[in-house]
Design brief:
Layout lengths: L2 H14 L7 H8 L3 H12 L3 H19 L4 H7 L5 H12 L3 H7 L12 H9 L6 E5 L2 E10 L7 H8 L14 E5 L13 E9 L10 E5 L2 E9 L5 H15 L9 E5 L12 E8 L1
Antiparallel strand pairs: 1-6, 2-4, 2-5, 3-4, 3-7, 6-8, 7-8
Helix pairs in contact: 1-2, 1-8
Amino acid sequence: MDYASQIQLAIDYIEDNLGLEPTLADISAQAGFSMFHFSRLFHLVMGETVTAYVRERRLAHCAEELLSTDDRTLDIATRWGFASQATFSRAFKRTYGLTPATYRRGRTPLFIEKPRLSLGDIEHLNKGVETEPCIEDIPAFTVIGMRFVWNVSDGYRVSEWWEKFAPRIPEIQGADSCTLIGVCEYTPSDCFTVERPLQYIAGVPVPPGTPVPDGMVSKEIATSKYAVFRHTGGVETLLESCRFILGTWLPTSEYEAFPADNFEIYDPESLRGETEAGVVSVYLPVE
């Protein structure tokens, strides 16, 4: 059965009724399943419960209206199904890491706001990224590579960056050229917007104290606990997986993001443009 298409029918119904109180029975009926079967299927494919999805989409609408209107926070909250301003504020801060008032003062959207999902998004969640990670303790290590500045609006141009860095790997003494590591340097959540400059290092692991060639940087990755996700496919779809990890898995997990760099380890095939053959391991520091 085409589960993705069935889930899309349910999501379309949810979106048309977000300001109301769509029941699990009504949502399940749109997909043609019993409540029990649909709840299990939705969680398996989407990595979250139906209730969590509805809450996060309501929060996304609230976040949009906080920036696009002058309506009172209470009016926005109740319009999208929150019982009180206090309930809304707690849910908003738990999901986005800052209060609605702070968000409104910033006047810029956040990367992790949950968008309305398309059929392609659902198929990616079904096949492109693990919805449950492994939790691993990783000791500190050092990376040498080239630093690139980007933002979400411009796009995650990983293949382009690695094309510039890869020919220079032989210049690095003692480099493990078989392990390709992309380091996404830490940015506080209350500063994270689609326009904010972000820093990415395309690098390889090296012994401590390795000389740094001209035009490169050395970065020590601190000891930490990591949630490790397996992304299947090219780097062109990696941002969709990162959006799921930060916007869906993290707020509903028992963990919180630890303020440290996250990194990715690439299968070389994943860096060759759009491909279904490559694998990327995404390491998110948690506590």
